[in-house]
Specification:
With 279 residues, this protein is of the alpha/beta class. It has helices at 18-27, 45-55, 86-112, 119-126, 134-143, 150-158, 173-182, 203-212, 226-239, 267-274, and strands spanning 3-4, 33-36, 58-69, 72-79, 171-172, 186-189, 216-220, 242-245. The longest helix has 27 residues, at 86-112. The chain binds adenosine monophosphate, zinc ion and fe (iii) ion (2 copies).
Length: 279
């Protein structure tokens, strides 16, 4: 049983269409279950579901919400919630608007350093996405020959503290856990011990989140080494939280280590999370 609970299509900053992603999940990665978790958007759900029905794979409808906790960026995965739940929709709109409205300031900073990219250049890469994120700006920089790949664009320019970094709105973490639960969904913290969020997501923080309704912790992720995975598994066991695993696939937007199925979720954990046995 092969279950991958965190992937991105071109409805956010992945490079596959939702249908291509589902086909790759079946034909290349041989997955039985795949979750589509685009950043702050559910616009890929319908297309992915139609392809999943054709291809005979279980699609989990998900999202990865950009949140903040104690000043650090934290990504929160949501699964099988009502996509029309008004308070949640309003919060996602704020995040997407924040991402879009930051674009001119980033382009101005780049221009100060002789890197000339227009909003139209970026739109060529964010056309199908719910908002223009830094990865799309990176794609435009690659296309114009300023950098070799997304990584170089982030490391040289776009990363927090970089020469062209501009902050944007992120949803408050604890309240967003509550929103997902109120919308009938499940909430799982994505790659909690990635750089930055490892400083604030302590055992005490997870206890607080569990109280707010958190269901699980994404443990098996490429950003976590073995000691991190052991530490997170211990916290999850202590608090009775589910543990998940995923690839965080972005198509060609991330390197091959992030291929579909690179990390998997245990079927028993999946059944605990979504209340459903996969046969
Ligand atoms: P934004 O939400 O627009 O601020 O962009 C952040 C997103 O960029 C993250 O959610 C990642 O998916 C992506 N990202 C961060 N660092 C890198 C990197 N070095 N290479 C490619 N994508 C990245
Ligand atoms: Zn991404
Ligand atoms: Fe993430
Ligand atoms: Fe992700």
């Amino acid at each position: 049983m092969r279950i991958d609970l965190h992937t991105h299509s071109n409805r956010s900053d992945g490079t596959d269409t939702p249908s291509e992603l589902v086909r790759h999940a079946v034909e290349v990665a041989r997955l039985d279950v795949v979750a589509l978790t685009d950043h702050d958007a559910t616009t890929g759900w319908a297309e992915a579901q139609a392809e999943a029905d054709r291809a005979g794979i279980r699609l989990v409808r998900g999202i990865e919400i950009s949140t903040r906790y104690r000043g650090e960026s934290v990504h929160l995965l949501g699964y099988e919630f009502d996509p029309d739940h008004e308070p949640l929709v309003a919060e996602l709109r704020r995040v997407l608007d924040g991402r879009d409205s930051r674009l001119p300031a980033v382009l101005a900073r780049l221009a100060e350093h002789g890197i000339v990219i227009t909003a139209e250049d970026v739109a060529a890469y964010s056309g199908d996405a719910a908002a223009s994120g830094r990865p799309h700006i990176a794609d435009a920089m690659v296309a114009k020959g300023y950098v070799a790949d997304r990584d170089e664009a982030f490391n040289g320019w776009l990363n927090a503290g970089g020469k062209a970094y501009v902050d944007r709105y992120a949803a408050p973490l604890v309240e967003t856990v509550r929103l997902l639960k109120a919308a009938g969904g499940k909430a799982v913290v994505a790659h909690p011990w990635s750089r930055g969020s490892d400083r604030v997501l302590t055992a005490e923080a997870f206890a607080l989140l569990a109280e707010a309704g958190l269901d699980g912790i994404e443990v098996d992720h490429n950003d976590h080494d073995e000691p991190a995975r052991r530490g997170l598994r211990a916290i999850a066991a202590d608090l009775g939280l589910v543990t998940t695993g995923s690839s965080d696939y972005h198509g060609t937007g991330k390197n091959a280590a992030f291929c579909l199925g690179a990390n998997l979720t245990d079927p028993e954990q999946f059944a605990r999370l979504l209340g459903e046995e996969i046969l």
